[in-house]
Each structure stands twice: as structure tokens, then as C-alpha cells.
């Protein structure tokens, strides 16, 4: 067929495909599934296994292309979480080795309007969302399964009302780039514990059961777009005015474990953190060794944890024959407060036990991720839990033995 005859056919084909190309510019679809299995190898409370999963469907609707609203994006995500938690059935502590568990059921997890201004130097977002996808999150979490470090350092959930995925609430967030690499970030998130109940659907938007607000903030520096080695350094903290329970005493100042009365109600907690991620080797940002770490500490309030620290590494591109695989290691330490330890000691004594539980819990995770293709990653992992904590069962009469856990995570992104 001659070129002259092909031109009308090509023009007709381009005309037919134009709406599809436009639709791809207007909508960025989100479709993924993450599964996390875990099984006891030894120690802990009991033998057993568990599986938890999350399906996500959603979209980013780019309103500039859709209706001519420059810099605006509507983000809508729905998730379904299902399965069981090894912590509850077998491990016996309160820090999961399946970070995907929690907020079970199908719910609207995010519905926000994002507005970019000043050529992207100021980004505003408001609607229904969650603090931990905006603050203290990291892309490195995709390489781990445990909840001590991911989706955020667990300390922030134990010592504040930091809202967590997928339990959304009213929020507003602003991030300003002072320079192309230096940013300031602040947000406000409504605290509504009733939304965290399993089976909630995320469509109950009344504020009648809200208890306060948490305001996280940060100042940070990150490497320029296109840099050979990625880096991020950040200082931040949070202010929380929601009510919480004293870890030791009742309203009269007597240890509640002895009086039998309710623990005293408190208001107002705060904390601070420092963290970093630094790629130290590799030919580009997608391959090489990245080191990371964080320290978190409370600055006011009666807290169950004194401080938290984590350190780890991710090697992206492990062998010449497996350039998309990854190797990851993380170690975390949760150090409990004196009040929390005294409460555990008294509760154990009332139940007929003796002694004080260990002062902290150390968790380690080693994983290897196999990139099956560009859509599927499968990552077996090995977890070691030193001195499993007693917060889920404060009346336990004896310490649990150190635990070994085998994990398996897979991520399907379409």
C-alpha cells in the first residue's frame, strides 16, 4: 500500500486513539494488592501462622487537563483490608510483623484536593486523609514487612494520636519549598478514635465523636531531582491535644493496677524526631546501597515509651543477573518509660507473677525481594524479636521467650 493511501488510515487511527490518550493525561489510576504472611519459628507465645492483605483501587484526577483548573488534583483511594494478625494469635507482643493489618474491612481511605501553587513551590492539600502518609513515611517501607519501622516508626502511634492508614479524618496540609531542596511542612489532622474500628467505611464525616487534633511539622532537605544518589534529612515533631490514658495512676494518683479504678485521663502530648536516608553507592538512584535511621522522643505528656531508635539499609540491585532485586535490613529499639514499666510490674504482681518485664523491645528484620517482573515483587523475610513486650497482656505472669518469625510479602502493582 502506498504512503499516500496510508495517510488517511493513520489519521483516522490517531483520531480514534485521541480520547484514550487524553484520558491517560486526565486520570492516573491506582490498582494494587499487598499480602503479608507470617509464621512462628520459635519462641513467643504459641506456634501458628497468619495472613493479612490489602487491596487498593483509586485514582488521581488531574483537574488541569479535565476542567482547566491549573495545579489541582483530586485524589480518591478505596481499600479493603482482610486477614489475621500473628501478634494476636501467636507472637504475643503488641508490635506487628504484618504492617498491613489494621482498620479491617472496606473503606474510603483518602479523598483530598491537592493544589500546587507558585510553580510547585507551595503544595496545599485538604479533605479526608491520614497523617502517616504525609509525615514520617518513606518509600523504603516497601522493602519491609514489620510494623516497628513501617509504615512509620511505631513510637509515634504509641505516644500520640497520630492518625494511621487507612483510617481517614478531616485534615489540611501545606508543604513549602524554601529552595529547590529545602522544605517546610506542617499539617493538622482531626483525631476520631471511632473511625479506627473494624468495619468502618470512611463515609461517616461527622465530627461529633472527634476528640481533638494532632499537628505534625517538619523541616527537611532532600537531594535534587535527577541526582545520582538520593538523600533526605529531616527534623520534626508533633503537638497532640487529644485526650489519652495515664500509663500508671488513677485520678487520685494511686497506681490503677492496685486501686482497680480507671486510669486517669490526660490531655496534651508532644514529641520530636530526627531522621535521614542517604544513598552511598550505585550508578544511579535506582541501584545501590541506601542507609537510613531515625530517633524519636517525647517532649511532654505521660508516655508509655521513653524513646525509639531505628537503623537499617536497603541494597537495590543485588547481583548483575538480578539488577531489580533488593536486600534490606532494619533494627529497631523501643525503650519503655518508668511509669509503663511500673504499671506492668504491678499488674503482673496482682496476677500472681513476680519481677519487672524487660525495659525495652528490640526487633530485627532481614528480607530479600525478588522482582518477578515490573508489576510483581515477592519478598521472604526473617524476623527476630528480643524481649516481646507485654502491653497486649499486662497480666502475663512471666516474660515471653525471644521469638523467630518467618515472613513473606508480595506486592502486585497494576
UniProtKB/TrEMBL annotation:
Pfam families: OprB
UniProt-listed GO biological process terms: carbohydrate transport
One cellular component term from this protein's GO annotations in UniProt: membrane
Domain of life: Bacteria
InterPro entries: Carb-sel_porin_OprB, OprB_Porin, OprB_sf
Alphabetically ordered keywords of this record: Signal
Keyword ATP-binding in annotation: no
Single Gene Ontology MF annotation: porin activity
Span of the signal peptide: 1-23
Family: Belongs to the OprB family.
Protein name stated in the entry: Carbohydrate porin
Naturally occurring in which organism (per UniProt): Pseudoxanthomonas composti
Lineage of the organism: Bacteria, Pseudomonadati, Pseudomonadota, Gammaproteobacteria, Lysobacterales
Amino acid at each position: 500500500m502506498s504512503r499516500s493511501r496510508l495517510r488517511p488510515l493513520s489519521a483516522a487511527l490517531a483520531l480514534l486513539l485521541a480520547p484514550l490518550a487524553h484520558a491517560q493525561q486526565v486520570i492516573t489510576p491506582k490498582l494494587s494488592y499487598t499480602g503479608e504472611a507470617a509464621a512462628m519459628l520459635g519462641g513467643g507465645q504459641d506456634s501458628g501462622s497468619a495472613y493479612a492483605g490489602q487491596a487498593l483501587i483509586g485514582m488521581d484526577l488531574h483537574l488541569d487537563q479535565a476542567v482547566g483548573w491549573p495545579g489541582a488534583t483530586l485524589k480518591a483511594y478505596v481499600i479493603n483490608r482482610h486477614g489475621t494478625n500473628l501478634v494476636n494469635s501467636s507472637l504475643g507482643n503488641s508490635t506487628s510483623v504484618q504492617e498491613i493489618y489494621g482498620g479491617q474491612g472496606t473503606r474510603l481511605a483518602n479523598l483530598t484536593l491537592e493544589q500546587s501553587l507558585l510553580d510547585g513551590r507551595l503544595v496545599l492539600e485538604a479533605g479526608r486523609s491520614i497523617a502517616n502518609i504525609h509525615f514520617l513515611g518513606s518509600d523504603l517501607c516497601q522493602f519491609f514487612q514489620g510494623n516497628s519501622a513501617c509504615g512509620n516508626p511505631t513510637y509515634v502511634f504509641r505516644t500520640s494520636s497520630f492518625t494511621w492508614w487507612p483510617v481517614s479524618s478531616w485534615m489540611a496540609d501545606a508543604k513549602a519549598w524554601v529552595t529547590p531542596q529545602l522544605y517546610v511542612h506542617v499539617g493538622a489532622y482531626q483525631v476520631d478514635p471511632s473511625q479506627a474500628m473494624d468495619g468502618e467505611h470512611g463515609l461517616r464525616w461527622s465530627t461529633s465523636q472527634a476528640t481533638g487534633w494532632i499537628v505534625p511539622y517538619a523541616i527537611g532537605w532532600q537531594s535534587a531531582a535527577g541526582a545520582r544518589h538520593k538523600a533526605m534529612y529531616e527534623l520534626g515533631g508533633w503537638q497532640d491535644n487529644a485526650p489519652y490514658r495515664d500509663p500508671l495512676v488513677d485520678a487520685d494518683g494511686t497506681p490503677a493496677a492496685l486501686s482497680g479504678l480507671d486510669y486517669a485521663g490526660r490531655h496534651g502530648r508532644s514529641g520530636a524526631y530526627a531522621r535521614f536516608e542517604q544513598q552511598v553507592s550505585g550508578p544511579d538512584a535506582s541501584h545501590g546501597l541506601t542507609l537510613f535511621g531515625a530517633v524519636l522522643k517525647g517532649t511532654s505528656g505521660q508516655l508509655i515509651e521513653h524513646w525509639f531508635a531505628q537503623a537499617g539499609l536497603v541494597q537495590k540491585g543485588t547481583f548483575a543477573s538480578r539488577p531489580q532485586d533488593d536486600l534490606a535490613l532494619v533494627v529497631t529499639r523501643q525503650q519503655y518509660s518508668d511509669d509503663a514499666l511500673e504499671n506492668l510490674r504491678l499488674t503482673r504482681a496482682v496476677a500472681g507473677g513476680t519481677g519487672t518485664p524487660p525495659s525495652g523491645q528490640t526487633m530485627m528484620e532481614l528480607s530479600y525481594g525478588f522482582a518477578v517482573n515490573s508489576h510483581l515483587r515477592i519478598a521472604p523475610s526473617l524476623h527476630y524479636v528480643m524481649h516481646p513486650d507485654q502491653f497486649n497482656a499486662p497480666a502475663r505472669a512471666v516474660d515471653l521467650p525471644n521469638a523467630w518469625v518467618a515472613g513473606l510479602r508480595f506486592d502486585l502493582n497494576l
